[in-house]
Amino acid sequence: MKDFLDKVSKSYYEGTPVISDAEFDSLAERFGYNQIGYSVTDGIPHMFRMYSLQKVFSEADLPSDIERYICTPKLDGAAVSILYVNGTLALSLTRGDGNIGRDITEKMRALVPNTIPLLETVQITGEVVAPKTIPNARNYASGALNLKSMEEFEQRDLTFVAYDINHTVHERGRLYEQTLLLLRDFCFSEVSTFNSDNYPTDGSVYRLNSYDRFDGMGYTSHHPRGAVALKEEKDGKITTLVDVIWQVGKSGVVSPVAILDPVDIDGAIVSRATLHNIEYIRSLELEIGCNVEVIRSGEIIPRILRRVD
Predict the structure, then answer these.
(1) CB 3.0-4.6 Å disulfide test: which of 94, 132, 184, 247 passes with 101?
(2) What is residue 176's DSSP assignment?
(3) pTM for this one?
(4) Residue numbers of the chain with a pLDDT score lower than 70
């Protein structure tokens, strides 16, 4: 199972996810998988590491001193870093494994200010997002960063939303709300004022306002202790797996499809769901006639989340 989840994780961070976030979270929890990102062997190091966020699924699990935190939408796109040196855009990288990413500087020049009025070296982090009216909007945004054609990239409907600035020099007393204001002054769309209604989100981010407190809390091997993501955990619908058929996709790949006892999910009658491949079927221990929980991933594609005994 670790090999399967490694492949899934690699595909996710390369911009071609094969299962949804909810499916991945469910499998990762079930099998105790906590690998973050994927190893890039031909990439470039981020100046500042890009950590993931600790996930919680209930407001009861949020920090007790929540009034010290700034809450922003958790955008569902492709995380990137942008390095400015002496006020000029010098390098932009995909997230990769958080330590090393791939060079996307030319593409990001089309989405962000090429200069900022700040002469120190800074790394600005944020998310490339696409409108949720586009099917599989996250895949659309992430996949765009892997395009070889700059002309094709520029035709994509993409927006960069910034959410932090990492400085080489730490200023005592600095507040996160001041960073967000500075990003607006630099002509970035920034996450606290960005209208995310038309863009995919998967929860909220709570981050300590004080950088002194944030830095003082430190980091685990995966995430900062001064921030947390409250994830939206959508309940699926329970139905029966009636059959599994195999079909040939447009790319010529043969993949399994679940035939379900029809069930109403958010106003749509669902009778089929993707099963990805035989490894996914085995990982969920699926059998004909078993009960399964089904969700509509991205509110569009039906997927089996788990077996229900």
Answers:
(1) 94
(2) H
(3) 0.70
(4) 1-42, 169-170, 233-234, 250-251, 266, 297-300
